[in-house]
Amino acid sequence: MTIDPSPALPLPVTIDEIDLAWLTRALRTHAPEAGLRGFEIVEVDHGTCTKIRIALDLDDAARAAGIAERVILKGGFEPHSRQMHYMHGFEVHAYADVLPVLKLPSPAAYFAGFDEARQQGIVILEDLTLRGVEFCHPLVPNGVEQVSRRLIELARFHAKTWGSPELDPGGRWGFLGVCIPETGGHMRQFLDPVVWQSFVDLSRGRAASVHFHDPRWMAEALDKLHRLAKRLPHALLHGDTHLGNLYREADGTPGFFDSLPHRWPGIQEVAYHVAGALDPIERRQAERELVALYLDELAASGVTPPSLEESMRHYAAFLAFGYCIFLVNASAFQPEAINTAYTARFSAAMVDNDTIGVLAALE
């Protein structure tokens, strides 16, 4: 059931606007009897969105409702955030509408709301550090076993909406967009030759093969991926499964946060995760087996999957999407070292899987 955020509107757009009265109203959308005696902002992390760690002085009703004593409040509090309100909206949908129904392992959410008038989206989540989880880091590649467990979870998640009419306009998930719109969408602005070259000239661009430096090739690749995706079954995707959005429980169970739900072929999420999470040597040795594992889990979940050979061709094609994302990712969102590491990993995967040749063979 979707939480009604209206009692917490208007949402704060500056950190100074986060006060006791507003926090109480927000938490009461989750637990109507919950109360706060006070709070303290412990830490502020500025990034794609702002993550604010807050210690809460909870009353007995709030404790009984299971609200954690420390939470993470995420929202658009940075200067660039006003242009990224749609991303905050996607994350609000993830915690308010998607994850409570489709059950991908994720942090507990105590508030998720979007304010159309102020173009602000805010979620309040449990602070996972209280449970001692291990956070993944983009500069530390995962092992094959970790990626395997994550692909099993993703296959089960994708299977719940695989080819579902609920993804069509008017369906339950019909409000979701696709990763690459017909015109290239958000990515098109970066394909201007001068803008594109400014990214190629950074360390991330120099870490990639020169064969992927041509913006005309990238524009054609995005168009081909859009046309390919229209021919394949769609599923509801987490939307951003790079290492910075992932964690492991103490028993090794994978967890996901920072979801940007979209509808798109599941193999795109597989390619994005595998190529970004593994060191190129481990990825080169294991990627075919990992794709096969994903397909087997789809079948076990009731989906009739495509063949491994067809899936590997689609895997190779969709690698270009992940490459484009990190080549043009603003340094305000991820430090240059992270953008460089990801761009290099995707470039290596594209070389190994002949992405240029596979895309050239597409209609």
Describe the structure.
With 363 residues, the chain is an alpha+beta fold. The protein folds into 2 domains: 6-130, Phosphorylase Kinase, domain 1; 133-361, Aminoglycoside 3'-phosphotransferase, Chain: A, domain 2. The protein contains 12 helices and 10 strands. It has helices spanning 20-28, 60-64, 85-102, 144-159, 193-200, 203-206, 215-231, 266-277, 280-300, 308-327, 336-352, 355-361, and strands spanning 36-45, 50-58, 70-75, 109-115, 120-126, 134-135, 235-237, 246-248, 254-256, 262-264. The strands form 3 sheets. A 5-stranded antiparallel β-sheet has the order 1-2-3-5-4. A 3-stranded antiparallel β-sheet has the order 6-8-9, with helices on one face. Helix 4 (144-159) runs parallel beside helix 9 and helix 10 crosses helix 12. The longest helix is centred in the C-terminal third of the chain and has 21 residues, at 280-300. The chain is globular and about 60 Å long. This is Aminoglycoside phosphotransferase domain-containing protein.
